[in-house]
Amino acid sequence: LALAPVTAPPASVDGFVREFLHNLNFELGVSLSASSVNDRYLALAQTVRDYLMARWLDDQRRLSEIKPKTVCYLSAEYLLGRQLDNNLLAARLTDVATEALAACGVSLEELREIEVEPGLGNGGLGRLAACFIDSLATMSVPSIGYGIRYEYGIFRQTFVDGQQVEQPDSWLRLGSPWEFPHPEAAQTISFGGHTEKYVDDDGVERSRWIPGWNVLAVPYNYMVPGYHNGRVNTLRLWRAVATSSFDLRVFNSGDYEEAVRAQTYAENISKVLYPEDSTPQGKELRLQQQYFFVAASISDFLENVLGDGVELEKLPSRVIFQLNDTHPVIAVPELMRVLLDERRLDWDDAWAITQQCFAYTCHTLLPEALEVWSVDLLGRLLPRHLEIIYRINEEFLEAVRERFGDDEMRIRNMSIIGEHPYRSVRMAYLATVAGAKVNGVAELHSQLLRDKVLPDFDEFYPGKFTNVTNGVTPRRFIRLANPDLASLITEALGAGWTIDLERLRGLEAYAEDPEFRAKFAAVKASNKRRLSDVLHVRDGFDVSEDHMLDVMVKRLHEYKRQMLKVLHIVTEYEGIASGRVAASAVQPRTFVFGAKAAPGYIMAKRIIHLINAVGKVVNEDPRVEGRLKVLFPPNYNVTLAERLIPAADLSEQISLAGKEASGTGNMKFALNGALTVGTDDGANVEIRQLVGDDNFFLFGMTEPEVEALWAKGYRPADFYQQDDDLRRAIDLIASGAFSDGDRSVFEPIVSNLLYDDRFMVLADYSSYIAAQAQVDAAYADQDAWTRSAILNIARCGFFSSDRSMRDYIDRIWHTPPVL
Ligand SMILES: CCc1ccc([C@H](C)CC(=O)N[C@@H]2O[C@H](CO)[C@@H](O)[C@H](O)[C@H]2O)cc1
């Protein structure tokens, strides 16, 4: 029976109506009149899926025939954001869907708002992975994103008396229409047990793993549609399911809990995302999660993509496993285990293959963020892998000795096995030894990796270290988040910029055109009104159109220095409250914060409390006459970012130089016409180089100056003594002015600033305040500000994640698009 190829339903309004009603009636089993909003949303999602399905199946068929080299992106996090709009855009269905639904008396807007975003990530690293897979699909690069289908994503943040309270993120509660479970492709993942030596039938002495327990990894496929190229790549997220769901014998013995204990224990593996984004807790469950998804992914690729009959020596020509930070690095000894123990290769062949199949991206500069696993825990959970890591390290140190002689200090510094404070495996070192390439995520970051974080390795492996500056997808963060700006750009430049962002350069000429400037200013103003409508419904906040919108949205971390922003606000407020500054002389500003703190990060949670406390006093103080406003909408996520960023005038990128690996919010703001006040840190450096000093408010120490001050001995209290504004601001916080006179509430923050201040907030204060005065002056000339905003957009095409993918392909992957 020659089966007709799968074809998409007719992309007409009638065709869409028919498909939608079919799904509502036959898939969801409700009539339109009886349907709930969620029913209609699920039916809509299924309908959009149907239009993308044909190309997805066709791609899978074509790729399985062509067998191209494939990028396997291994990431413990994917911060995907809402899917509906992006899939409608990719399938060119937005207008048809709007009309078809209207014909059914349904508003697309209403359904859009009910979608719960999959919060399967913490922040920058997770969102970057989502931007990257979007670009790979849009550029027709064969690739699979592998990760974990957490049942609970990043916690939902609420504020109680200004303090963060975490709520579980039950994102699957109302159904998850964009996923396709494939229990038939489940992989069995083993843990625990022991290893034993044996002699195989060729008389070769080998080691084998006798696991203690195992769990099933069930894959859920998600569509990753390319933009207007008819392509759909796959994101494969693994869910943990107990091999034996239920021990009837134990149950019949009446020990009901025991009967299901194995099940719950096993299924805990993919239960929840770890909400830390800098300090690993070293929890066993975290390591179980990491091994679980990488082992499932490697077996899945070898079995279902590579297939049988391929010489393993050819593996490097068929796949590159990109390690998204250290979280998936256990994949290295896992591939070795498969090649040695299952495919019976000898060590040298297995290692030669493995070294060509991996590449490692580092996303941090904070020493405490580099993961280490104790050999006790690793040996207990993954005894065979520890054996293999020891052997890798042995051979590596042998090579180091050959090169540098018996330099014990260097040997100890470079060993994958660290001795202090306890014997542990340094995952970043393992990734560097095994990876064909190691890259940082911005020029400055990659340089610091080579000079400061891994200098011995840079010396030992010439040419291994490279850089790929981060990027963001223009589909979600311009086309979808800022449709008015998108149509203004298309009107001026044509539509090609959405997949060729460097074309934005063409806007430079328009920056000189008063008419275009007026149109741009109108877009910014309407985005502010739209944001105000959203925040009014969401949190009861209103945004005043005549206020400069000064936005700082990112995870709460001391190195990102939300405290510097707080000191600026308190300085402005103190000036008015003390009567030294007339409120009327102050440039009206609304300060918007968005930030989640890792639940165990006490100082970060205190800073959130302080921001809300300062906001309450400033917003309610009549002397301020509404010139200053502080808004802190809770639960900052991708969806809120899409509303906030297009409305922003000023982007706060104020981390201490040498601490932010790159930043990606900085790119999104610049591409939406916000000006940046920032330090020379991460990708800020490259943004400033491209937009020009006149269009960037630079302040603060450079990384070498930070190092020099640290080396000289940093005494924050000196800055407090010498700077009146700073002293008055800190004294006001210390006085209890923002805590009903109770000095104890924020005392820990004040004393930390005065006697510790690891991220030199006080040292950069005066330079920051000076920069903010420049911002006020610049904003007074709206036309010049608008010109500068347009130049920021025009000169930031480089920060497309498509360009990042081209760099990865040229420098690391060598996986050309398959058109
Ligand atoms: C184990 C705990 C943990 C979890 C996540 C992380 C991530 C690496 C933290 C992160 O998201 N880093 C951010 O990555 C972005 C994408 O490259 C960069 O733009 C940010 O500068 C960097 O902080 C470190 C440690």
From TrEMBL:
The keyword Isomerase does not apply. Its EC number is 2.4.1.1. GO terms for cellular component: cytoplasm. Keywords: Carbohydrate metabolism, Glycosyltransferase, Pyridoxal phosphate, Transferase. The keyword Disulfide bond does not apply. It catalyses: [(1->4)-alpha-D-glucosyl](n) + phosphate = [(1->4)-alpha-D-glucosyl](n-1) + alpha-D-glucose 1-phosphate. GO terms for biological process: glycogen catabolic process. InterPro entries: Glycg_phsphrylas (IPR011833), Glyco_trans_35 (IPR000811), Pyridoxal_P_attach_site (IPR035090). One of its GO terms (molecular function) is pyridoxal phosphate binding. The modification N6-(pyridoxal phosphate)lysine is found at residue 668. It comes from the Bacteria. CDD domains: GT35_Glycogen_Phosphorylase. Its cofactor is pyridoxal 5'-phosphate. Belongs to the glycogen phosphorylase family. Phosphorylase is an important allosteric enzyme in carbohydrate metabolism. Enzymes from different sources differ in their regulatory mechanisms and in their natural substrates. However, all known phosphorylases share catalytic and structural properties. This is Alpha-1,4 glucan phosphorylase. It comes from Microbacterium ulmi.
